[in-house]
Amino acid sequence: VLIIIGPPAIVTDKLKSLLHKPSKSNGFLMQTPIARFKNLTDFTFPANYLTIKTASQKPFQVHYVDVKPKFAASQTILCLHGEPSWSYLYRGFVGPLVAKGYRVVLMDFNGFGKSDKFYNKADYSHEMHKSTLIEFIEQLDLNRFTLVVQDWGGLTGLSVIRDSRVSPRIRNLVIMNTGLPTGVDAYNVLSALPFLIWRCSVMLLGSRIPVKLLFALDLGRLRQLEGYAAPFPDHRFKAGVAKWPLLVPLSGRSKVAEDMKEARAFLKTFVKPVLIAFSDKDPITRGADKDLKSLFPASAPITHRVVE
């Protein structure tokens, strides 16, 4: 499907790049024009920003939503999105959770949502996303919080919780349609086929990947499509989208694969409450819930749900 819709998407993106100018650029960082988000009537939360400093890049701005109940919050919930979405994914979670007394924090990874975006794909790495998340948690001083992860938010979030700066702060885990892949071999190539097709499509289209059309295939609702596509006026803003699938390890000897192995080993010692909630409609992560559940010790308080 992506191969068929790719050429028209490239032409459309080229026209858009002539019409939209990034609101700021310092040579390699851009921010989506704020006007792109003004008509999102279902995402009206105040915007907050933190400056993130990593060893390998110039400082960049990370956007987040932070909604608190009227009275003291019983605890904090941090939600991490995946590919190619942003904090808009969790818009329906905020109201009900805040009404129950929770503080809800939604973070946009660098390259997504209202956060800054690198123009060059080479500037995105698994380590950069991990460092960003750790610094984000430290700057907000989140403690005894529930971490909610989905898709790449899981590969990043589950890799970070073993860090000594983060692990003591975690109270609960909620894991949705994600995994900790350590590479593809002859034993799992068939189950990995949907992802391999997706990865090849991304390699073919690069930053010309048609985000809006991808969501249209799944959602088909115009208002939601505009919301998910808002951060990406044209291909210049999609380097992060084009890079994330390529960071999933195919070889067990890659640095990311080694990090996934270490994360899997850590989960064998994790005894805090865990909710594993998967949809059975995702062809890429289908079955990964059982794999993840098997990693936790038998004594861990785990709730496992599959939404059909």
Question: What's the helix and strand layout?
Answer:
Blueprint: H1 2-19, E1 29-30, E2 48-52, E3 60-67, E4 76-80, H2 91-99, E5 103-107, E6 117-118, H3 126-140, E7 145-150, H4 152-160, E8 170-176, H5 193-205, H6 211-218, H7 222-229, H8 239-247, H9 255-267, E9 274-279, H10 288-295, E10 302-307
Parallel strand pairs: 4-5, 4-7, 7-8, 8-9, 9-10
Antiparallel strand pairs: 1-6, 2-3, 3-5
Helix pairs in contact: 3-4, 4-9, 5-8, 6-7
Can you offer a commentary on this structure?
The chain is built from ten helices and ten strands. It is an alpha/beta fold. The two termini are 25 Å apart. Residues 1-14 have low confidence and may be disordered.
Report the count of strand segments: 10
Q: Can you give the mean pLDDT?
A: 87
Q: Oligomeric status of the shown chains?
A: single chain
| End-to-end distance | 25 Å
**Main sheet, how many strands, which sense, barrel?**
8 strands, mixed
What is the 3D shape?
globular
Q: What percentage of the residues does DSSP assign to strands (E)?
A: 15-25%
Number of helices: 10
Strand order of the largest sheet: 2-3-5-4-7-8-9-10
Residue share in helix: 25-40%
Task: Please trace the helix and strand order, writing H or E for each element.
Answer: HEEEEHEEHEHEHHHHHEHE
Low-confidence stretches: 1-14
Rg over C-alpha atoms, rounded to the nearest angstrom = 19 Å
Structural class: alpha/beta
